[in-house]
Amino acid sequence: MVESLLHIVGAWGAFGIMVAILLGFSVFFTLYYSDTRDREPFAMIITVLALTLCLSTVALFPVDIFLVSKTLDPSTGLRRGWATDEAIASMQLTVRIVYYGKERAVGVCLGRISSQSMVCLPHCFLSLYAALSSGPAPSY
User: Which of 8, 30, 83, 125 could form a disulfide with 71 if both were Cys (CB 3.0 to 4.6 A apart)?
Assistant: First the structure.
């Protein structure tokens, strides 16, 4: 049981280090390709978080492969002693929760961005255009 815990902690520890590296890369990438005069803090934060979420989703695949490969003994080709059905189901559930949680976060971010760009901004523009084109407001 201790051996399985070490493998799981090692895999998720490596994933945590990779996410930290990807976060640093996302910050560098965003700062490098943004204009110094047009840096909006909120937009930068959203860009860094979205890029980190997308890249870390790709980094989740090696963790899944590592966890599956550690359940088998390479000399015999059979499951290791600690790799019971419950332990494997627990590992699958953990990977599934992390994967779908990250996908949900990306979906929420993209949904909010698309609703702002497709609904709110055109409504504000058109109402401002209508107000300006109707001429000055009558004074009483």
Answer: 83
